[in-house]
Design brief:
With about 325 residues, the protein is of the alpha/beta class. It has two domains: about 120 residues, Rossmann fold, CATH 3.40.50.720; about 190 residues, 3-Layer(aba) Sandwich (Rossmann fold), CATH 3.40.50.720. It is built from twelve helices and twelve strands. The mean pLDDT is about 95.
Length: about 325
């Protein structure tokens, strides 16, 4: 198959090239994101391979279909960037990588937690300047604290397992409780109770109409004062303006983000010479109790290899049978 790959970085290309079965298809690698302004570059392709910040709305999908594209391959688990209703109406198949390494994201979440709690980011900067004072770096023992996990799929389950090793009390909320979490002692409670009781709240749910701005002004008002919030799921699960308000009021103790609701114009790019034009994001960076990483939770050798392998498996299955291995439907 002829495949145009969007939002490509060197590591994406290398992972695909090293994966068995790479030679069975023809790839055109592009750094550009797929949207209405770049869709013409898919001319001649039978499939497009996209990532989290590519935009496949009805207009883009219609243009892709007209160009002859019949398959959309997502190099990620989430699919909120695709208009699935439009794809189905056009008869276009959409597939994804349902899981790659739950450990990668769960461990990155833990890294954010420990960084914020023990002020590692501030201590690192101080020591490099010869400042060894401990004022302002006070943390707390994780042992005995209550951690609330919103969403207990594979990543949420893995994060729960990590936190049991710290001796934490674990609460969770999910429409479908995970038996593995129940077996390790996780207590399922409604979201308001979870927010009110948790010292740390970690988000591991997909972005859907129901979870868009799930953590909003009301949610922040219901959180335990001084609690930590972690989001390594999708940016729009958190209302950023409401988070800033809670940080300014000091009701939110700390915030760790690997995703941001307007990250499309920021993440996966080097803007060090251009400056940040997003005023909301720039405001977030002014808080000493906020740590932001650029959507790198997935970024391990193991995860990249798994993403590449599953992507090729989807392409191979579609080429052989007309159906991808891991389809996404409405």
């Amino acid at each position: 198959m002829h495949v145009t790959v969007y939002s490509t970085r060197l590591y994406d290309r290398q992972a695909l090239e090293r994966s068995p079965g790479f030679g069975g298809h023809s790839f055109n690698f592009l750094e550009a994101r797929l949207d209405a302004s770049t869709v013409a570059t898919a001319a001649g392709a039978e499939a497009v391979c996209v990532f989290v910040n590519d935009q496949l709305d009805h207009k883009v999908l219609q243009a892709l279909y007209t160009l002859g594209v019949r398959l959309v391959v997502l190099r990620c688990a989430g699919f909120n960037q695709v208009d699935l209703v439009a794809a189905q109406a056009l008869g276009m198949a959409v597939c994804r990588v349902p899981e790659y390494s739950p450990h990668a994201v769960a461990e990155h979440t833990l890294a954010l937690l420990l960084t914020l709690n023990r002020k590692i980011h501030r201590a690192y900067a101080r020591v490099r300047e010869g400042n060894f004072a401990l004022d302002g770096l006070l943390g707390f023992d994780m042992h005995g604290r209550t951690v609330g996990v919103v969403g207990t799929g594979r990543i949420g389950e893995t994060f729960c397992r990590l936190m049991t090793g710290f001796g934490c009390t674990l609460l969770a909320t999910d429409p479908t409780p995970n038996p593995a979490c129940i077996a390790m002692g996780v207590q399922y409670v409604p979201l308001p109770e979870l927010l009110a009781r948790s010292d740390v709240v970690s988000l591991h749910c997909p972005l859907t109409p129901h979870t868009h701005h799930l953590i909003n002004a009301d949610a922040f008002a219901g959180m335990k004062r001084g609690a930590m919030l972690l989001n390594t799921s999708r940016g729009a699960v958190v209302d950023t303006q409401a988070a800033i308000t809670a940080l300014k009021a000091r009701t939110l103790g700390s915030l760790g983000l690997d995703v941001y609701e307007e990250e499309g114009g920021l993440f996966f790019r080097d803007l060090s010479g251009a400056g940040i034009q997003d005023d909301v994001f720039a405001r977030l960076l002014t808080f000493p109790n906020v740590v932001v990483t650029g959507h790198q939770g997935f970024f391990t050798e193991d995860a990249l290899a798994a993403i590449a392998s599953t992507t090729l498996a989807n392409l191979n299955a579609f080429a052989a049978t007309g159906k991808p291995l891991y389809p996404v439907s409405v």
